[in-house]
Structure prediction request, 487 residues.
Amino acid sequence: MFTKIDIEKFGLFNDFRWSNSLDIFKKVNIIYGRNYSGKTTLSRIFRCIETGELHKKYLDGKFNLIDNENNTVTQDNLTCQYKVRVYNKDFISKNLSWLHDDLKGEIEAFTLLGSENIAAKQRIEEIENELGNIEKKTGLLYQQEQKKLSFKKEHDRLERIQKEVTDLLTQKANRELKQSTYFVKQGTTYNITNIKDEIAAITNSSKNFILSEEEKELHKKTIDEAEKKPTNEIPVSKIKLSEYITTVKPLVEKKITLTNTIQDLLTNNILQEWVNKGRDHHRGQRDYCAFCGQKIPTLRWEELDAHFSKESEDLKENIQKEIQILNNSKSSLEKFLETKGVIKDNYYYSYHFDFDDIKKQWDNFAEQYNIVISLLNDKLQKRYDDIFNPEYFDDDAKKIIDDVNIEKIASDFERIIELFNGLSKGNNAKSDALGKDKDTSRTLLRYSEIQNFITTVNYKKKLEDIAKETIQLNPNYALEKKGKFTG
Prediction:
């Protein structure tokens, strides 16, 4: 048997859908209603199934009957497994024409009893005339139908505006904000409910959330940054420039006691160095001079050994050691920051400006430091090359040392190390709070984007239009969406 029916269009029925709140048809059903409420129109749908053709007045009708086996009967297929019989006005007109007047098309009364019945009949006719007929476009029923249609038109327009706003919000939330790691942390929920809440927070705030391009770029870099490894603090130590000067000065100024010296060598330090190196190449290896080919007599060896005394040899050895110490100091300084892990890439982007500033101070300190080291090395090398002649710190050398200010260089070193250590502390703290910083940056970027979106789509005006349209709808039809009627 049939259980329910949907009527898209048939007489006064428009867009009727059998809702879940309605009971399905049973074996016996009673359908009641006032005149022109649609009882006959409904019976004509079943009459179409009985006759196998659409009613001549409803050739454009559309309906769908469903039985308990989920079979359907529509205006395009009127066949079914049931025998349908309908007794209505159409049946009487076709099968019992002898009972009605051909001109009026109404069943004539068999008899009238009393004046009260006549008055009642007249009143009924007056009411029926006042109610009118939707199909004939007369009376209150037709007026009511027009109001319903007008309401539906306005209601549909309101729903279109609401859908437009909903689609804009859904597009922004799901396809733009949610898909970007700069706006929403990937893997977390963000939907139309979230964007509505944030729009409310933005519109209710007096703050301007729009970010400049530079601010956006900074927040994006924060989000893009990977967590940095911890940077260790540098132990603060003292540099040894003063000690180096104290050590170098007596070395280069030391006087060597001259005993049995060779005058030609004393007056020519280049020749003296050449001969000294020659001793190393010949002693214990050659009896004959590799340069002139003559035998080297024992007396000559004694003369050379007397000239190059142990005192001068010891001094040269000490000078070489000090030169190596100074060179090591210079090399260590060049690699100092790198070996301590003080490298720009080890710090977060937000600290790069401070790093550059401190590094500039470090470079200036290193330049001053190397000036002193170079001066000391120069003095040592000159004394080494001319070991028998003292090398003094003349006025120019003293001026260089005074200009660079040894004490200031030492204090600058300690101060700069403290600055780098402070930077490392902040950098390590940022690692601990990086997740929170990223969430903050995403929120600020998202609020800026949403505020710009609100302005671009004129969101506030759209909401005002929706509120205005809602108020203007006839309140008597507020329940129309549920299929109810109020008179």
